[in-house]
User: Which sequence fits this backbone?
DNA sequence: CTAATATTTGAATGATTATTCATCTTCTTT
DNA sequence: AAAGAAGATGAATAATCATTCAAATATTAG
């Protein structure tokens, strides 16, 4: 059983921000240590390696996406309702974990095997959930689009890049953001 | 007058692919030299620095976006027509310069001043073009959306991330891709 | 209070980084 | 063919990288 100490959580949080701002490769363990307020060598009392930090960030967020979607959907939701809920769940995760989302979406490539393959597998699984959701709506005749793969990628593109521009202290709450985005997306395929 | 030799163009092309695949920071001049087929020191007969290569990639693509949009739009286009043309112009640039788009969208942060500020200024200018386009449609009553800033960001998010999933040798041509995407987007705000 | 455990540190390690430079080779121009 | 320019190279430079380790310090448990 792995215990995540408070300090380890703090290190991960700061690393998340730095990896997002400067990129994983351009963030040194010395950079990280300085922000944490200790020496670089001390980091290794809490984490095994730089890559372990990246791995933790990526897989934690992957799980957050799955969990949020699973908790949001009800078996008897109509297709448009399910799509709306899935969009809002996804937006919710991104908007609450902006930096982690940036790392999740771009820095995973610096994972080494076998983490890399596991990560890509999770991403694909998640995409398949969305594919099924869209297909159901199309089969029922309530969604209209030319190509399934394009529609899924289109939707996820719009959702994912929210991390790049949403300002949590700006004009809109996460709930309002979700509502606006799901409106634009659902109208796009109805 | 700057002359871009064939070899410099080749170096830039290979660097574009490597920066896209591994990221700017994680791509060494030795990596680049090896792919070009020369020694690292020889690169400096053709380019001033690693950053000059990045700068060239980013600004060349920025210009491509402006040019494509400018050439696509006619003064008497209706709003939906103008939006469709702008989407297709943007998608065209991304789809034809997939790797460069990835670099443009993510690696610009490694530019140093004053290039960095110039680049961000161009990005903002481009976004303003889109804002005006949407506003005109809303004023005419043909576009419907809650918030302008969100709508613009939503559209650009969907367009930009095409670089991440479009396969040029796959099922769809660039023209077909453009058509599908613009359909999804325009329907989303009508 | 004492012993055990956990955390921190400065210094070192060995690898890798972008870039420079004198020298050598190749190409172009006359 | 001779001269000059351009390109290529191995070696060197100085900086930075992630990580290790023995020793010092701080924290916890009995």
Assistant:
């Amino acid at each position: 059983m792995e215990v995540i100490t408070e300090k380890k959580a703090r290190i991960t949080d700061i690393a998340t921000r730095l990896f997002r701002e400067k990129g994983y490769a351009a963030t040194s363990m010395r950079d990280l240590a300085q922000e944490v307020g200790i020496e670089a060598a001390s980091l290794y009392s809490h984490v095994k390696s730089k890559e372990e930090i990246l791995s933790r960030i990526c897989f934690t967020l992957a799980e957050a996406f799955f969990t949020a979607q699973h908790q949001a959907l009800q078996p008897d939701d109509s297709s448009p309702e399910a799509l709306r809920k899935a969009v809002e769940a996804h937006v919710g995760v991104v908007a609450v974990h902006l930096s982690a989302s940036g790392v999740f979406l771009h820095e995973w490539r610096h994972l080494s095997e076998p983490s890399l393959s596991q990560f890509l597998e999770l991403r694909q699984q998640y995409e398949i959930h969305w594919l099924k959701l869209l297909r159901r709506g199309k089969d029922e005749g309530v969604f209209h689009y030319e190509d399934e793969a394009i529609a899924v990628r289109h939707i996820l593109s719009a959702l994912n890049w929210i991390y790049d521009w949403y300002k949590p202290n700006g004009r809109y709450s996460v709930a309002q953001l979700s509502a606006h985005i799901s409106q634009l997306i659902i109208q796009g395929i109805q």
Chain B touches chain A at residues 21-26, 106, 109-110, 145-147, 150-151, 153-154, 156-162, 164-165, 171-172, 177, 180-181, 183-185, 187-190 (CB under 8 Å).
